[in-house]
Predict the structure.
Amino acid sequence: MARKKSADLEKTKQTLLEVGLSLFQEKGFNGTGIQEIATLADIPKGSFYNYFSSKEDFGVAVIHYYTETSMEEWTNLLDTATQQEDSYKALGTAFLAITEKHRCAEIKKGCLLGNLAGEISEASEDCRKALQQSVNEYKDILAQRLLIGQQLGKVRSDLPAQCLADLVWDCWQGSLLRMKIEKSVEPVNKAIELLFHYMLLPIK
Amino acid sequence: MARKKSADLEKTKQTLLEVGLSLFQEKGFNGTGIQEIATLADIPKGSFYNYFSSKEDFGVAVIHYYTETSMEEWTNLLDTATQQEDSYKALGTAFLAITEKHRCAEIKKGCLLGNLAGEISEASEDCRKALQQSVNEYKDILAQRLLIGQQLGKVRSDLPAQCLADLVWDCWQGSLLRMKIEKSVEPVNKAIELLFHYMLLPIK
């Protein structure tokens, strides 16, 4: 009986995270109310605090949840693409696959990390630290793949892989912001082409 | 008498825009309340609606106000630097001057356009259009200077200037988001170095 209750609690917590992620991506952190989250998760507003001590605490949990699920998606895409092509080329393929998902989505949500970085880095120290940790995890994966590209002679070697990973992250985030402003994935597709067909190539 | 009243109204409107800009940059659009704006502008909350029909209308006005004032700042910086160096080199100098301002600021506000793009592009169609217009104005200035750089043989010519302007805007915005996350201008300084000392240089 206790086990069933614990499973129910876990299920509701999971629903709250999913609902929160979707709303934060669409309306931002402050544009989303706890009442709205609770209603969509089918629990009374007061019960929200059985799961999370505050909205800020919830924000941190949503950032971790987003990082976990999207990191899994990236890893799967990279593993699948790596079976067909080299590990560096698979990186470009994975970026294009994610962009295609954005293209098909009616609401251009962009990246939770970039959106919240702009919105709440100053207001919430806990969320800022969670964002910092997540962005560093992403950049480490990028740097690993770029380093392989350098070792294969497919990526310029005049700059450290970590430095090129910063460039890729910055361009990706900047172009996602333009995607939201222009309601089109064209800026993202162009940014990926610019990176993988020009900026990252070895200097001849 | 009527002229004095009109001047007072204009002054209060200007104060509201200044206060709104500062709060939006620090706390985001939805993190800022009209009560807070009115209190800091020293007017009753109800009077806010004598100046702006809605918070969304105010958001659009703040985006235009930010664009106007920061565009003036950029133009002044570019004109000053252009007297000492060529028009393209002055672009890099202007970016470094703006970064220095961010370094000195205790609160790392970043760019209003990038922050609001992430937060409210989906929620407000009017704000999204205002952001789109502003970003295009900025990118046009960048493209003009990059084109001069291409004509002087100082910028790579294998890509259109407009395309390089997209790259510069994306990197700048992405690195400003990392500045907010890391509470340091190091990501921005490194991004400018990467652009102006590597990515934009002519292919030898």
